[in-house]
Automatic annotation (TrEMBL):
One of its GO terms (biological process) is tricarboxylic acid cycle. Belongs to the aconitase/IPM isomerase family. This is Aconitate hydratase, mitochondrial. Keywords: Iron, Iron-sulfur, Lyase, Metal-binding, Mitochondrion, Transit peptide, Tricarboxylic acid cycle. It catalyses: citrate = D-threo-isocitrate. Its cofactor is [4Fe-4S] cluster. Residues 40-476 form the Aconitase/3-isopropylmalate dehydratase large subunit alpha/beta/alpha domain. One of its GO terms (molecular function) is aconitate hydratase activity. Pathway: Carbohydrate metabolism; tricarboxylic acid cycle; isocitrate from oxaloacetate: step 2/2. Residues 556-684 form the Aconitase A/isopropylmalate dehydratase small subunit swivel domain. It is an enzyme of class 4 (lyase). It holds the Pfam family Aconitase. Binds 1 [4Fe-4S] cluster per subunit.
């Protein structure tokens, strides 16, 4: 295990450290003395402190040292802006940025890409220059979708990766523990802070048998989603194992891992096997495959491991599925689908079929899909529905262009879109139906929530394998079942589509296509980061001010929130996403969805200095201008939802000091601490009712100590002041974050020392 094997072909100095991993694991094994799941082995071998760390699945918080960080272009903006404010010369851990989310599908790959480059120029210029400055690998627009690029270049068995995108688990197809996180977590790892994760439970999925005919790896996860529902994987890693795993291609396993996100799983892993070795060899990483073989014993589960839950699937009996509409866990086997369409009155005509995306755009997917399209063409038929193809990477696009599948799709009537997310993330200028018109589309993507693809809430979006998508486009109807139904050829003769066949890997090897990678330059000192001061999409962050060392006296309550206050209420998404790289602009959405207890309305609070009602961000800005800090009072589980760091950055930016609630969603609570705010909870939750929106409060910050409550003095508008105890969960290093103004200020201070 002493060998020096590089993590990838792009970086000279980043190696796979199986030796250190095995040493850490030996320590943990001795402590736990029980068989371990593969997911556990990966996590525990990346512990910051394998000797001292508490380890209890579903209970402890693990402090981990990931091997890599990856960001997509939408989430990278704020992550990098924050990292910059730490004042470090380069990222502390290998990091890459991928331009894929901002490219809108309109007429076809090349033109759409050109348009996106012009519309998003300032964002791309910023990312390209910041990556060059801070030693980050930059994948330009047109290179492909983050998860395909990671699988093709960066994933390796036993590794731990965090990525600022929910489908990061895709790399589990190559035996990596790859976890989707918020930008704040990515910044921690870039800045060399340990990364915290609640020790996940492990759900085992045992695969036996072998797929055949129309069944594909996608159908495994469509079936699993039907069993677990969209919440079934929450707080757990899905661990596939059993002889069936040997029969699935590496990219097929990645499809299954990718869609584990749809059941809420922390991630999904597959054990290292020969199919992964073959894929590594085909993608110029045979040395990694060989190295993994020497560590193979630890790249799978221990014999006798006990899973928190076990699901068993016999692949020989697995039917193709179609899931949806509106949710990915409504799973219907193809044999029952036509009846379900009738029973539910789903629009029968198939308007659009879409294949590709990060979920299903492997060479195998493309070659099987092309085989079906070719079969139809041989019978004189073309797609009845609109048909689009999204290659997941430039490498896949170039390879299917060379090998002819791409021409087949075009002959069949398909439009080949840019190597990017496109319609999967709503970047789709769809013109074949009007907004509000009920219609059906079917894709090989992963998510199908209302409006996700085209912004039309009446679109019934289904997900299936690329095979079924293409077959359905031949018929143009949701009633078609290619396993049993006949079609009519151009002369009116009946025929059945042949079972699809394809190649897991291209016989001639991959064609890399155009060079779309920008390596950081050797001399980075002269690089300057491009941010226009007049930009409304990007803004350089100034470090937040340190605590003044005093108690905070006579603070107004900006808003006392009633009921649910999720991260969407605190920092709404939708049109605001455009400003995710501009803290001041996006702060205009702060808490606009929260309900004010005083009047039962959203975004209408009283400014105590004027007596006037105004929007929440406007009042906060007015207080800030007048030098008045403020607090928010919240109800139960404040900040649930996503890990969006903007929900913590905005109140800090607009002058908030403390958020005081009955309870917090943990990730949001940590995010607030990172930004130098005080997340506090009522020691007695009933005290929430004692506070009125017009009260003023003193927060005795000087009492802040590990494990001790702090006092809040409430000054009611009419009546005598009284004290309330507030609990807090700061540890010693987090108290430093508060004192220094933020976690990043603390890192910057350490670096300067
Ligand atoms: Fe996310 Fe879709 Fe892009 Fe995949 S293709 S990364 S699911 S937006």
């Amino acid at each position: 295990l002493d060998r020096k094997v590089k993590q990838n072909i792009w970086e000279e100095n980043n190696f796979i450290n199986y030796k250190k991993m095995s040493e850490n694991l030996a320590v943990v094994r001795q402590r736990l003395n029980r068989p371990l799941a593969y997911a556990e082995k990966i996590l525990y071998s990346h512990l910051d402190d394998p000797h001292g760390q508490d380890i209890e699945r579903g209970v402890s918080y693990l402090r981990l040292r990931p091997d890599r960080v990856a960001c997509q272009d939408a989430t990278a903006q704020m992550a990098i802006l924050q990292f910059m404010s730490a004042g470090m010369p380069s990222v502390a851990n290998p990091t890459t940025v991928h331009c894929d989310h901002l490219i809108e599908a309109q007429i076809g790959g090349a033109k759409d890409l050109e348009r996106a480059i012009s519309i998003n120029k300032e964002v791309y210029d910023f990312l390209a220059s910041a990556c060059a400055k801070y030693n980050i690998g930059f994948w330009k627009p047109g290179s492909g979708i983050i998860h395909q690029i990671l699988l093709e270049n960066y994933a390796f068995p036993g590794g731990l990766l965090i990525g600022t995108d929910s489908h990061t688990p895709n790399a589990g197809g190559l035996g990596m523990c790859a976890i989707g996180v918020g930008g704040a977590d990515a910044v921690d790892v870039m800045a060399n802070l340990p990364w915290e994760l609640k020790a996940p439970k492990v759900i085992g999925v045992k695969l036996t048998g072998k797929m055949s005919g129309w069944t594909t790896p996608k159908d495994i996860i469509l079936k699993v989603a039907g069993i677990t529902t969209v919440k079934g994987g929450t707080g757990a890693i899905m661990e596939y194992h059993g002889p069936g795993t040997e029969t699935i291609s590496c990219t097929g396993m990645a499809t299954v891992a990718n869609m584990g996100a749809e059941i809420g799983a922390t991630t999904t892993v597959f054990p290292f096997n020969d199919r992964m070795y073959d894929y590594l060899a085909a993608t110029k990483r045979k040395d990694i495959g060989d190295f993994a073989r020497t560590y193979a014993k630890e790249l799978r589960e221990d014999e006798g491991v006990e899973y928190d839950q076990l699901i068993e699937i016999n692949l020989s009996e697995l039917e193709p599925h179609i899931n949806g509409p509106f949710t990915p866990d409504l799973a219907t086997p193809i044999s029952k689908f036509s009846a379900a369409v009738k029973a539910n009155n789903w629009p029968e005509e198939l308007k659009v079929g879409l294949i590709g995306s990060c979920t299903n755009s492997s060479y195998e997917d493309m070659s099987r899909a092309a085989a079906i399209a070719r079969d139809a063409l041989d019978h004189g038929l073309k797609s009845k529905a609109v048909f689009t193809v999204t290659p997941g990477s430039e490498q896949v696009r170039a390879t299917i262009e060379r090998d002819g599948q791409l021409q087949t799709f075009e002959e069949y009537g398909g439009v080949v879109l840019a190597n990017a997310c496109g319609p999967c993330i709503g970047q789709w200028d769809r013109r074949d139906v009007k907004k509000g018109e009920a219609n059906s589309i079917i894709s090989s993507y992963n998510r199908n929530f209302t409006g996700r693809n085209d912004g039309n809430p009446a679109t019934h979006s289904f997900v299936a394998s690329p095979d079924l998508v293409v077959a359905m486009t031949v018929a143009g109807s949701l009633h078609f079942n290619p396993l049993t139904d006949k079609l009519k050829d151009k002369d009116g003769n009946e025929f059945m589509l042949a079972e699809p066949t394809g190649h897991a890997l291209p016989a001639l090897g991959y064609d890399p296509g155009q060079d779309t990678y920008q390596a950081p330059p050797a001399d980075r000192t002269t690089v300057s980061v491009a941010v226009s001061p007049s930009s409304d999409r990007l803004q350089v962050l100034s470090p937040f001010a340190a605590w003044d060392g005093k108690d905070a006296i006579d603070l107004p309550i900006l808003i006392k929130c009633k009921g649910k206050t999720t991260t969407d209420h605190i920092s709404m998404a939708g049109p605001w996403l455009k400003y995710r790289g501009h803290l001041d602009n996006i702060s205009n959405n702060m808490l606009i969805g929260a309900i004010n207890e005083a009047n039962g309305e959203a975004n209408k609070v009283k400014n105590f200095t004027t007596g006037e009602f105004d929007a929440v961000p406007a009042v906060a800005r007015d207080y800030k201008k007048k030098g008045i800090q403020w607090v928010v009072i919240g109800d139960w589980n404040y900040g649930e939802g996503s890990s969006r760091e903007h929900a913590a950055l905005e109140p800090r930016h607009l002058g908030g000091l403390a958020i005081i609630t009955r309870s917090f969603a943990r990730i949001h609570e940590t995010n607030l601490k990172k930004q130098g705010m005080l997340p506090l909870t009522f020691s007695d939750p009933a005290d929430y009712d004692k506070i009125k929106p017009d009260d003023k409060v003193d927060i005795l910050c000087t009492e802040l100590e590990v494990g001790k409550p702090i006092t809040m003095v409430v000054h009611p508008k009419d009546g005598k002041p009284f004290e309330i105890k507030l609990s807090q969960t700061f540890n010693a290093s987090q108290i430093e974050w508060f004192k220094n103004g933020s976690a990043l200020n603390t890192m910057a201070k350490k670096n300067a020392a």
